[in-house]
Design goal:
Layout (H helix, E strand, L loop, with lengths): L1 H23 L6 E2 L5 E5 L3 H10 L5 E7 L4 E2 L3 E7 L4 E8 L2 E4 L4 E9 L2 E9 L6 E7 L15
Parallel strand pairs: 3-10
Antiparallel strand pairs: 1-2, 2-7, 3-4, 3-7, 5-6, 5-8, 8-9
Length: 153
Amino acid sequence: MKNQYRIAFALILTCLLTAVFSVAYAQPTVLKSASGINFMNGGIGREEVEEMRLVAKKFPLQILLSEGKTGTALTDVDLVITDNNKQTVFTLPKAGPMLYVDLPAGKYKVTGKYNEVKQSHVINLVAGEKSQRLILNWKSDEVEYQPEDVVPQ
């Protein structure tokens, strides 16, 4: 009877340890766009940021979306990527704040739209070179606090 308890305890312990290690080493989810492009979108919270950074080098294009001088993270940017022939190769509504896209080598135009304001950048991805990081930052309508704005009385 004691052996049965020991075996049961060992099995339960093994299951618990397996569950703990699988959660601790879980990889972020790679998604596939309608056009077949692998991508990751997220970066909300410290854990998610760290998980994404672990796999960042696997993606030729890393896009960071922010607002204002302080770089406040944005999560609702409509993003479109077109190739050199002006054909749309990737779209993602409500992207951000971190978007990694696995595009083949080539020249692309990345266009983001936030609060009806668009901005575009052309990038050239070269096979075998390190990932490129693109930061799209929109000016904030709010007045950002500056220490020199304080007037002594």
